[in-house]
Input
Amino acid sequence: MAVEQRLRELGIELPPVSRPAASYVSAVRTGNLLYLSGAGPTSPGTPTPTGKVGVDVTAEEAAAHARQVGINLLAVLRSELGDLDRTRRVVKLLGMVNAAPDFTEHSKVINGCSDLLVEVFGSGHARSAVGVGSLPFGMTVEIEAIVEVE
Output
């Protein structure tokens, strides 16, 4: 799998990896699994998207935020592995949406990340998409991942 080449074809440039917000690490490896900590929709030079999805933010806007989270997860993955071509597959995502109580399109939001990862890696993954009452810093979406690596 030529993941690095695929990123170039898609015009995706990975951002620098930011330091964790507290006393945890961005990733932990055990055997051939790499557990990536939850990431938000941060982007260099722009404010982090905040608000309740379904009230302040549309599902479509939040899906774009989830895509940015996917890009940030890829940046962490590259930082840990040195080369994304050492990735075998994305195993599982847990997507959390800062949603209004009556919001029901959590899956549509997390598709922003899932679709990106399928574009990059060419295969699907297991996934959960849930609504939560709040997220750190008021951000709209947070996603964590489990990845099989060489």
Summary: The chain has a mean pLDDT of 96.
